[in-house]
Amino acid sequence: MSDLRQPPSTTLGPIDLRLPADPSMSRVLRLAASGVASLSGFTVEEIEEIKLAVSEVLIALVEHGVGDHVDVRFVASSDEFTVHGSTRATSAVDEHAPDLALCRAVLTDVCTEHSLTIDDEAVRIAATLHRPFSGI
Amino acid sequence: MTDFPNESFTIEVADDGAIVVTGDLDMAAGPLLDATLVQREEQHPVVIDVANVFFIDSSGLRSLLDASRRAQARDSEVVLRSVGPEVARLLEITGTTGQFRIDRRDV
Questions:
Q1: What is the pLDDT of residues B14-57, one digit of tens each?
Q2: Which fold is adopted by the domain A18-130?
Q3: Which residues of A touch B26 (CB under 8 A)?
Q4: In this prediction, does ipTM exceed 0.90?
Q5: Which CATH class is domain B9-104?
Q6: Which end of chain A is less enclosed by CB atoms within 10 A, N or C?
Q7: Gap between the Cα atoms of A53 and A43, Å rounded
Q8: Cβ–Cβ of A51/B95 closer than 8 Å?
């Protein structure tokens, strides 16, 4: 039987989650990301960075999508953690949606790379944290 | 519409009038924090104790910044009391430290 507590030498995932597009899912998503990152051997400090990135991903999806659910994928290896997210969008501009300046600022600092696109069909976001993490 | 209770965040008002925030200051906490801050805005300054905040993201920060902007419009300010490393880091990342009077947590 394999020991999942040991850092795997290969990629863990993809791990796909479909969640209600609700702010309360932020904590759920962070807990899930923490578990995946822990299995992959990331340190407590690194996991805090991953949790922040994951939370920002959900902010972008919930505040700028119109779907009733969001799809999130985690892929982790011993030196890299990637989160992909998507949800349905619309061409109508929601003037009340908060701008993403703060969200982008956090992702820029925490992540090695990230991308965010919003078009008529979907909000798509990807964020990758590669060791060594910039914030630690 | 299903309600998802937020059990990871509470707000209390201390005897000295400070708004004491406990838990994760994330997207789920925003509406409750916003409502509390609006109710307490007659205070000068508005004091928010974040000693027990160990996670904050940009949506939580946005609530704090909105309170700061409203306070500045009244020639007042927001004091963040007992700021720990998690809150301090997010303020630094986003370049928003100057929007608040900062009282750091003793470590």
A1: 999 999 999 999 999 999 999 999 998 888 899 999 999 999 99
A2: Heat Shock Protein 90 (3.30.565)
A3: 23, 26-27, 55
A4: no
A5: alpha beta
A6: N
A7: 15
A8: no
